[in-house]
Amino acid sequence: MAVNRHNQSKRSNILVLSEALLIAYMGYITHFILIHLSITASVSIEKLAVNVGLITISILLCSLAVGLYEAKLRETFRGIIRRIFVSVGLSYFLVEVVSRAFFEHLIMDSYFLPAAMSAIVISLVVFRYFTNRLGLLGLGKARIVILGAGERASIIEKRMRRDVDRIGFELLGFIPIPGDNREEGIKKEKIIHVKVDENFQQFIADNDIEEIVIACDQRRGTLPIDVLFECRLRGIEVTDLLDFMERETGQIVVNLMYPSWVIYSNGFHSQNYLRDALDYSLNAFLATLVLFFTWPFMALTAFIIYLDDGRRTGTSVFYKQERVGLNGKLFKIIKFRSMRPDAEKDGAKWASKNDDRVTRIGHFIRKYRIDELPQLFNVFKGEMAFIGPRPERPEFVEKLVREVPYYNQRHNVKPGLAGWAQLNYPYGASVEDSMEKLKFDLYYVKHQSLLLDILILIRTVEVVLFGKGR
């Protein structure tokens, strides 16, 4: 355990030193860029050194205060970005106060501090992305062991097979627990045969284990509570399988959820009151901005659809369909028509990847998501948001609510033009697919934030530009 703590301390020291150099460099380079752009005048090296040093020290102290250098920080990348923003924001205030109180004669031009802080935020986010997400310096990468080797534990083997899925941790193996369904359990992963008793602490220490994930099939009477309690007291993280999967995969494993986990979790309602208050204003602004740039493409698309088959069949270039929105309220979604007029002559059907009902122009506009653009008017009407679970048809919702647990919880937020599920699981043409997409939808409902919305928007732009859409 002492070796493990030494390694953690060494990694943290390297991180502090690396970020100190990065912050100082960005402070210096910002000043020279401002001079080159003729925004500020050159200052003495002593004055610049004092200001850069003050910024560097204040950001390091604030980063330490918000836990960015905690050796056992188990945080999502979005959470790390939030901490960086808080740290730099506090530092901005601290530098302003300290410099005006003690170094007023050394205060730089008014453009320097905001420009430097902005550059530092961007550089720190990029730096943390490569260190945490790519496993550089071993930061954020914990040595873990799974308690359980049955059916529940097998979700890790099935869903996290690739190395890229395990960037955030080093998995030592799975420990079988009495009551595990081994027939449906771990097949190819390493099985560790060790008793979880009073000697388990020695196994933890010998292998430098930092986290234990509880994934056994039967808890009552089989889970070694006293041993786990002792591990927790010694600083070892003890994490439930559902929390582990949520943290590492960005989804909530609906089929493994149990009532007590839901009760003690944060729930599936937004706690971001500022975001909720500005919801319509932000969405209307974005819709106006997108409409300003895309209306020529929309007009051209409508004209081509009319020439393709609209003129011959007399069918509208738009397609209106009833969907389920916020709190189960029905509304009419508007899209460019991408299917034949008789596409649903035999009743409602799931759309599929290579649907033969799609027209010639329909394949193109669906691939680049152009068919979704008229939904901007649904945003203006307040029926949809830019980001949220994709709205489903009431005929399908009625069936899915009966067959998929917690399906109705996705209606706790407005449906959106783009969603977390669409980025991670693009095709849904069955109840099974709806179950998989719900895992991502519930993650979004539970973790909805402005930062997550921005991340989804950026990735959606990539999908549109490179034609990765449906």
From TrEMBL:
Domain Bacterial sugar transferase: 283-465
Keyword Heme: no
Any one annotated GO CC term: membrane
Superkingdom, taxonomy of origin: Bacteria
Keywords carried by this UniProt record: Membrane, Transferase, Transmembrane, Transmembrane helix
InterPro entries linked to this entry: Bact_transf, EPS_sugar_tfrase, Sugar_tfrase_EpsB_2
Protein localization: Membrane
Entry protein name: TIGR03013 family PEP-CTERM/XrtA system glycosyltransferase
UniProt source species: Alteromonas aestuariivivens
